[in-house]
Every structure is written in C-alpha cells, then in structure tokens.
Amino acid sequence: MSTNKTLYQRDPHYIPRVAAVHDMCGYGKCSLTAAIPILSAAGCDVCPVPTALFSAHTKFEHYTFHDTTDMLPGYLDAWVQEGVELDGIYSGFLGSAEQVSIIQRMYRQYPQALRLVDPVMGDGGHMYPTYTPELCQATARLVDGADLLLPNLTEASLLTGLPYEGQDLDQAQVQERLKALLGMGARNVVLKGIDHKDGFLRNYVACADQGGAEEPVELKHEKLPYMIHGTGDAFASAVCGALFAGRSLDEAARIAGEFVRSAMEHTPAQPDFEQRGVSFELDLKDLTALTQTL
Ligand SMILES: Nc1ncnc2c1ncn2[C@@H]1O[C@H](COP(=O)(O)OP(=O)(O)O)[C@@H](O)[C@H]1O
Ligand SMILES: Cc1ncc(COP(=O)(O)O)c(C=O)c1O
C-alpha cells in the first residue's frame, strides 16, 4: 500500500525557505543543530527561530536553559519589516506555552507555508524535564491544521489521551493512534519508532484525505542495537527536507529512516558517541543525492 502523496511541488531551480522553530543546544546534537544541516543538505534555505538556548540537551545531568520567548515577537516583526517570505514552518522543541501562540501568529502571517509539526514533548512514556502539562496542552493546539505531524509514541499518547503502552504496538493500536491524530485535525501523520523487538524499527504514514480508513503505510528498517539521543530530530528534519525536495510522503519517511540508520552506524566510531548524539555529518552528501532534483 502506498499513499504516494506529495506535499510540496518543487521547482528544480527554486530553493524553498523553511523557518526552523526549535531550541539551540550547544552540545548533544539535536533540534537546530540537526535541522539546519539536514534541511540544508536537502536543498532548503533554513531560517532558525530559536525557542530556547541550552548548553546541552536535557538528557545530560548538567545543562543551562534560557527561554527565548520574550525576544521572539520582535525577531519575527523584523522579518516582516524585511519582507521575508517562507515556504514552510517546521516546529519542534518549545521553550514555553506562549510560543504556541507565536507559531500560530506565523501561520497567519505566512498562510501559504507548509505547517510541519514535530510535537516534541517526551519519550519512553515520560515528558522532557522542561515540559509541563500546560506546555503539552498548548502543543496539542498545533495538531489541528498541521500538514504533517511527526510524533513518537509518547507524544501520540500525550496528544490523544490514549495510554502509553510501550513501543511494541500491534496494528490495531497503531491504527487507533493514527486515527485519533487525524481526527484532531492533522492532515498527515508519521508515527515513529514502533519496535516489535524483531531487529527492525517501523514508522507509519497516514493521510486524512484517505479518511483514515485505509491501512497506514508501514516503513521498516534495521534497528541498530543501541539508542542515541536526537534520532527524533534527525529523522523529522530529514522527512521535512525530503518533502521540500518534492519527494512523496512515503518516500520522504523511507529516506529519513535510512538516513538515521546509516548515521547511527557511523556514530559508535566517534569518541563519547552516546553523549554527542547522532553523527550524521558523513551521511549528508547521501541525503543530498537522494533528495536533489536539480
Ligand atoms: N536504534 C535505531 N536504529 C535504527 N534507526 C533508529 C534507531 N533509533 C531511531 N531510529 C530511527 O529514527 C526514528 C526516530 O527515532 P525515535 O527515537 O523513535 O524518535 P524520538 O527521539 O522522537 O523518540 C525512528 O523511528 C527510526 O526510523
Ligand atoms: C533541549 C532538547 N531539544 C530537543 C530534544 C528532542 O530530542 P529528540 O530528537 O530525541 O526528540 C530534547 C530531548 O531531550 C531536548 O532535551
């Protein structure tokens, strides 16, 4: 089964501009330090909107956190004054609940821009330390009208109220979560990280214009026997990059899964690999080759 759906028609001589609304981490590759290189490798002009500044991500014992909410209205006003145009708004980890209203303001200001929402809130059944129930409720407001929503299973539970039942979900449980997310107004969903402990990871693609009635598309690839932080951001950024390169949704999710798997294969060769995050630098040229239409 294939949805074979294209969200963005790429003119081969045009470079799409995408606002990346994520935090910046000094160490531990995730968020903007994933989104900027990965989307650029896929042929996008990335304009960062930093939602917070961290010395390192929240899986570290020691980190500093600076919420940037206060500076964002002026930052975006200045873009409007300069006539900056956007083809996409790709949001992820947020610093405060008020930032959801700021993203909605961007949606009003750039009505043609694709709305790509990675509803970063937690994993393994737990919220990230700087997330609060209020911030999760606010994040849920981004589901309605999202052209693409990219939750993991923890985030799918937080958004839908369905229980978190681990990563080993059967087809009916996957379908239930996808239907609930489409029912909340997401136009397309990629549900990440289903793990039957059979040596593969599975990602599922579902589209609202199929009424949620069709079987979702299952994309499976090898699972490497270690976990590294930041895979969700690398995966979501690669899906978005491939979409802006004109790839279909299924193909974008397949390309992104292979990109993360391949990058994870290179990662253990690096010192402190479990700390530094996914080392995808050597894989960027392959992402360019896979996504480029020029
Ligand atoms: N151990 C792994 N081996 C291979 N691919 C992986 C591995 N971990 C994650 N990935 C890929 O990255 C995607 C996103 O990772 P995941 O950890 O599920 O996201 P999140 O960080 O949002 O919880 C997965 O769905 C899978 O395609
Ligand atoms: C500061 C920060 N940004 C982003 C993330 C998202 O990481 P992932 O790619 O694993 O979803 C996290 C998760 O801990 C984080 O702490």
Helix content: 25-40%
Query: What's the arrangement of strands in the largest beta sheet?
Result: 3-2-1-4-5-8
Q: Unreliable segments (pLDDT under 50, ≥5 consecutive)? A: none
Describe the sheet with the most strands.
Answer: 6 strands, mixed
Question: How many domains, as an integer?
Answer: 1
User: Could you say what the CATH architecture is?
Assistant: 3-Layer(aba) Sandwich
Let me know the average pLDDT. 95
In CATH, the homologous superfamily goes by the name Ribokinase
Bound molecules: adenosine-5'-diphosphate, pyridoxal-5'-phosphate
CATH class, named Alpha Beta
Shape: globular
GO molecular function: kinase activity
Protein name: pyridoxal kinase
EC number: 2.7.1.35
InterPro entries: PM/HMP-P_kinase-1, PyrdxlKinase, Ribokinase-like
Fold blueprint:
Elements: E1 17-27, H1 32-41, E2 45-56, E3 65-67, H2 72-81, E4 88-91, H3 98-109, E5 114-117, E6 122-123, E7 126-127, H4 133-140, E8 148-149, H5 153-160, H6 171-183, E9 188-194, E10 200-207, E11 217-222, H7 231-244, H8 249-266, H9 273-276, H10 284-291
Parallel strand pairs: 1-2, 1-4, 4-5, 5-8
Antiparallel strand pairs: 2-3, 6-7, 9-10, 10-11
The structure holds adenosine-5'-diphosphate and pyridoxal-5'-phosphate (PLP).
Adenosine-5'-diphosphate (ADP) is lined by residues 123, 152, 192-193, 201, 203, 223-224, 227, 231-232, 235, 257, 260-261, 264.
Protein name: pyridoxal kinase
Keywords: ATP-binding, Kinase, Nucleotide-binding, Thiamine biosynthesis, Transferase
GO molecular function: kinase activity
